[in-house]
């Protein structure tokens, strides 16, 4: 047998092999073996065997023993970690801007940016460097209607209230809006009312998680998420007043809920697109016209 294998590996031209099953019989089979075809057959058998072995490993638990094996769970965790890393980088950038704004506020560096040559002075946005909102303005072409004092175009005649049925104080649905009122949160104003810049509100910097309180009795007419203002809530008061509270972390009331004066309606936060730090964006409207909230609030 050893001599047969040695001769088989050494041949370089076709060889003839004779196989005899029994020396006593005449049944003899002869085969001509070509080296090239035998080598090709051997390589084909090796490739097929390797493919079958690879497929077997990948469809069974044996794949876990491979050095470069990565499971679907690890891939999912890696994608989640990458997403959180990107979000963390964005948050660090936002808080860096917020800290810079606080530094400018504490050092008194609140000068407004100088006017550019492309815009006339009466059309430039009036904004301080301590602003928390990043919303561009103006938001409307009729911003001049909201310059203070903003009053409705038409008024009811002085005696028109006589036709309204008089009810006792105990039967009133809502008490009149009382001004000046306590501010909705405790903090300091980082940006004031700027109708020309489209900022019909004040921004009050406050610690995240502070309770936001209603400035008067009323009913909730909006309580939802908005892309720009984040979690926002609006309260309809008597005498045509509406107060709006934006950029909250979460809301405590639903639409149609009755709220009392100084009742908590939300928790302050930093939600929404147009914000660079935890603060409350507070708006006050009267009969469709924006009002400067600082004229109606105490201590701001």
Short description:
The protein has helices at residues 2-10, 35-58, 72-107; strands at residues 15-20, 28-33, 188-191, 202-205, 211-213, 218-226, 230-236, 241-251, 258-259, 264-268, 279-286, 289-291.
Structure description:
23% of the residues lie in helices and 23% in strands. It is of the alpha+beta class and 300 residues long. β1 (15-20) and β2 form a beta hairpin. 26% of the residues are buried.
Low-pLDDT residue intervals, each spanning 5 or more residues: 111-129, 153-171
Radius of gyration: 40 Å
SSE order = HEEHHEEEEEEEEEE
Structural class: alpha+beta
Shape: rod-shaped
Mean pLDDT: 76
User: Separation of termini?
Assistant: 106 Å
Number of H- or I-type helical stretches = 3
Q: In percent terms, what proportion of residues is strand?
A: 15-25%
Number of beta strands? 12
For the largest beta-sheet, the strand count, sense and barrel status come to: 10 strands, antiparallel
Roughly how much helix do the residues carry, as a percent range? 10-25%
